[in-house]
Design brief:
The protein is an alpha/beta fold and about 325 residues long. The chain folds into 2 domains: about 230 residues, Spore Coat Polysaccharide Biosynthesis Protein SpsA, Chain A (Alpha-Beta Complex); about 70 residues. About 50% of the residues lie in helices and about 10% in strands. The protein has 10 helices and 7 strands. Strands 3-2-1-4-6-5-7 form a 7-stranded mixed β-sheet, sandwiched between helices.
Length: about 325
């Protein structure tokens, strides 16, 4: 079993792969780490896969996974995590903006300092201020507020994990941005960060656009909801439905009593508040039914009794 598995998702990075591989091999050789390098080609349209095959002939610790089409970074990481055998798993991007020189310190923080997950923090960035840096700061600020995880750069591709973490989570959709949140929901609480060097892009261009910030925010809300109410949806929808229904019902009763006691000249159906109260009751009923249906789906799910067990004796 290797000391380290280095998982590298990539898409059209043929120029950078030889230099990145040489750099990783040099660092790991100096530190006497046994290792495996797992490249996941996410449907590249250039010569990336052929480059990986050539590199595997020069280095016997290189493994490769090639997708038939582009599925996204989350899918690539998920397959890489499944294949990883090392006690410590380190992820990095293939564009040379993440420095392999960070590997020894990240490895130490997992093995010696006892962290479950360590995320890189690109404190000084070599990106466009308005299109990437400022949106990234806003994005991470919202993440910290909602998730409660105090990381400055949750989306940094350079991370280190205890093997137990990556074998306990499933990364899908666009959830690679929120792996620390997934880890926390799986019960791993010792999450730290390390300031890392962010290098200017040497080859190619960035593959990400503005839509990732919108999608990322929606994904964060999804993770928070699923982690808290995935196995008990009635606790969320039922509570909201009950509150809304009670507000509407009490309002209707109040208006009825007021009509009888005061003896107003106009009927209940002529009052706007009556229709607002009825609408609130209908919405409350719909929320309750949504929770009931969610509960039925949850109880029928294949993983309804799947729980992560840390230790048995």
């Amino acid at each position: 079993m290797p000391d380290i598995s280095i998982v590298i998702p990539l898409y059209n990075e043929e120029e950078s792969l030889p230099e990145l591989t040489d750099w990783i091999e040099r660092v790991c050789t100096e530190m006497s780490y046994s290792r495996e390098i797992i490249f996941i080609d996410d449907g590249s349209t250039d010569e990336s896969w052929n480059v990986i095959k050539r590199l595997s002939k020069d280095y016997n610790d290189i493994r490769g996974i090639k997708f038939q089409r582009n599925y996204g970074k989350s899918a690539a990481l998920n397959e890489g995590f499944k294949a990883a055998k090392g006690n410590v798993v380190i992820t990095m991007d293939a564009d040379l903006q993440d420095s392999p020189d960070e590997i020894p310190e990240l490895y130490k923080m997992i093995t010696a300092d006892g962290f479950d997950l360590v995320s890189g923090w690109k404190k000084v960035r070599h990106d466009n201020t308005f299109t990437k840096n400022l949106p990234s700061k806003l994005y991470n600020g919202v993440n910290r507020l909602i998730s409660g995880i105090k990381l400055h750069d949750m989306n940094c591709g350079l991370k280190a994990y205890n093997k137990k973490v990556i074998k306990s989570i499933e990364v899908y959709g666009e959830m690679h941005r929120f792996i620390p949140v997934l880890a926390k929901s799986a019960g791993f609480r010792k999450i730290g960060e390390k300031v890392v060097v962010h290098r200017a892009r040497k080859y190619g261009h960035s593959k990400f656009g503005w839509e990732r910030f919108i999608n990322g925010f929606l994904d964060l809300l999804s993770i928070q909801f699923i982690s808290r109410f995935g196995k008990k949806p009635m606790h969320f929808f039922g509570l909201l439905g009950s509150i809304a229904f009670l507000i509407g019902f009490i309002s209707v009763v109040w208006l009825t009593v007021e009509r009888i006691m005061v003896g107003a000249d106009f009927g209940l159906t002529n009052r706007v508040t009556f229709y607002l109260a009825l609408t609130t009751m209908v919405i409350g009923t719909q929320f309750f039914l949504a929770g009931f249906l969610g509960e039925l789906v949850s109880r029928s799910a294949a993983d309804r009794n799947h729980y992560l067990i840390e230790e048995t004796m």
